[in-house]
Amino acid sequence: MKVLVTGGNGFLGRSVVHGLASAGHEVVSADLQEPTRPVDGVEHVHVDVTDRAVVSSAIAAARPEVVVHLAAVVTPGRNSSREREHAVDVTGSRHVFDACLEHGVRRVVVSSSGAAYGYHPDNPSWISEDQPVRGNPEFAYSHHKGLVEAMLAELRETHPELEQVVLRSGTILGADVDNQITALFQRPRLLKIKGAESPFVFIWDTDVVAIIQRAVTGPATGTFNVAGDGALTVDEIATRLGKPVLTIPEPLLRAALAIGKRLGLTAYGPEQTRFLQHRPVLDNRRLKEVFGYTPTHTSAEAFHAWATRNAGASG
């Protein structure tokens, strides 16, 4: 079938585009950036999702049966702003969904995140897809994913003819992953808030790509948590890395971050304590039982694979 991938030259997009093309699909990669490693047979189109007319024109020209929407600001650059991130994440998503409806796209596959559930003290120990989406306004990524999911929920009511597969991913690890989360594991000591376990769930990047490919062609629609089996606490991660854990009371860390942010010593503000305390821990049963995919790596195996490939993480 014909598939258009927004964010096709991003971290996930490159692998998704390559995998779909290798499986015999006709693929159009839509991105602001030219591909660094073009894939044979894949058409690249220059698309800024913040431009409604450009998005509509690209989808009208491609006439895809399925759109895989990956375009988002995951790790903001130094010169980024909340307004720009909202324009890409939220307004850009609206442009993509509107164009899908306008030009008769059958299915949209959306890369969401477990962050859409939000970082809340009343999150259940294991969070399933029937829990409400409550992205935190203080975290742009979490807030924006929540807003996009609200759009999708509305579209399920008003336009059920547009099939949806919404993938809420845990922390993605891979051989070449280097981001804000993995930076936490590269530090000499791991940080933990006193009294908070707040485990991580991990998913290996090749599993994510395989899940997206199945979402394009498989029969299952709906919303699915994307994570390997099990979880790892900060203490367990530290043991695997052979590193000590610095345990700090929440009020003390909050005050230190407030001062550090004000003085320009850290990019993180006092709200970061919520992330350290209340990460949503994703239940993946629906992924396995309804969607029909069991990740090849558990959370522990994904972390071990990442740590093995990033020897510096072990100090």
From TrEMBL:
Coiled coil: none annotated. CDD domains: UDP_G4E_3_SDR_e. Residues 3-187 form the NAD-dependent epimerase/dehydratase domain. InterPro entries: Epimerase_deHydtase, Lipid_A_modif_metabolic_enz, NAD(P)-bd_dom_sf. Transmembrane segments: none annotated. This is SDR family oxidoreductase. It comes from Saccharopolyspora rhizosphaerae. The lineage of its organism: Bacteria, Bacillati, Actinomycetota, Actinomycetes, Pseudonocardiales.
